[in-house]
Design a protein that fits this description.
It contains nine helices and seven strands; from the N terminus they run βαββααβααβαβαααβ. It has helices at about 15-30, 55-60, 60-75, 100-120, 120-125, 150-170, 185-190, 195-205, 215-225; strands at about 10, 30-35, 50, 80-85, 130-135, 175-180, 235-240. The chain has a seven-stranded parallel beta sheet with strand order 3-2-1-4-5-6-7, sandwiched between helices. β1 (about 10), α1 (about 15-30) and β2 (about 30-35) form a beta-alpha-beta unit.
Length: about 250
């Protein structure tokens, strides 16, 4: 009797709040989970294999990129079922203050790394008839002051999702999740000692709540499902309805 092949998943930015939830969800769903982040492995991150990786170096150093890709492929058997490009950096700054390095770092991590990682693992993704899930942001469509680099990178990842879906056709599915406010430790730290501001953030969403990392992970699991094979090249807003709301000062 032949045993069913265990599905595999690679998650970048695994040491962050959404990354943790993604690892937990895909592990619980029976995937072989490879997790990567720039930091050493957190002791409570329950992945099958952890690979420390610097995505900036990955985009700038071809030898380093080849080593990282080879290390990942060495852990895969028949192919890679799901690649989740979750890692991102948020450097705040306006049009008059962002430096060249701020801009380059943002684009390297948030845009170029997802493309190059997908490209380097394309044969494994194609072998498994796999799926790429990019984690975008509501800032791709709606933004605010001082998010110039971040918002641009997230708009570009939505564009990349559409372009790669057309370019790859039936070979590999590519989709994107665009969350609004998600209750990670980083978000909570930004509102520490400011409960009124945090409550205002909740209230401005029509759902009157902040999203949970587990909700992002559950949506990613759904997008990875082969039964949704016609879903290709879309960016789905997970935003509590705020993307439909007109903020009128009156």
């Amino acid at each position: 009797m032949s045993s069913k092949r265990k599905r595999s998943c690679l998650i970048t930015g695994a040491a962050g709040g959404i990354g943790y939830a993604l690892v937990e969800a895909f592990q619980s769903a029976g995937y072989f989970v490879i997790a990567t982040d720039i930091t050493p492995k957190p002791p409570d991150l329950a992945c099958d294999y952890y690979l420390p990786a610097d995505l900036i170096q990955f985009t700038q150093d071809e030898n380093y990129a080849q080593q990282i890709s080879a290390n990942i492929q060495d852990k895969l058997d028949d192919g890679l079922d799901v690649l989740i490009n979750n890692a991102a950096i948020q450097i705040l700054g306006g049009t008059d203050s962002l430096t060249r390095q701020n801009w380059q770092t943002t684009m390297d991590v948030n845009l170029l790394a997802p493309f190059l990682l997908t490209q380097s693992l394309l044969s494994k993704l194609e072998a498994a008839k796999g799926s790429v899930i990019n984690i975008g942001s509501i800032h791709a469509r709606l933004t605010k002051k001082n998010f110039v680099a971040y918002a641009t990178s997230k708009a570009a990842i939505a564009g990349l999702t559409r372009a790669m879906a057309v370019d790859l056709g039936p070979r590999v599915r590519v989709n994107c999740i665009e969350p609004a406010a998600i209750e990670t430790e980083m978000l909570k730290a930004g509102f520490e000692g400011k409960p009124d501001s945090y409550n205002k953030l909740k209230a401005c969403h029509p759902r009157q709540k902040i999203g949970q990392p587990s909700e992002v992970a559950k949506l990613a699991l759904l997008l990875a499902n082969d039964e949704l094979g016609f879903l290709h090249g879309v960016s789905i807003g997970l935003d509590g309805g705020i993307g439909n709301k007109l903020l009128d000062p009156n």
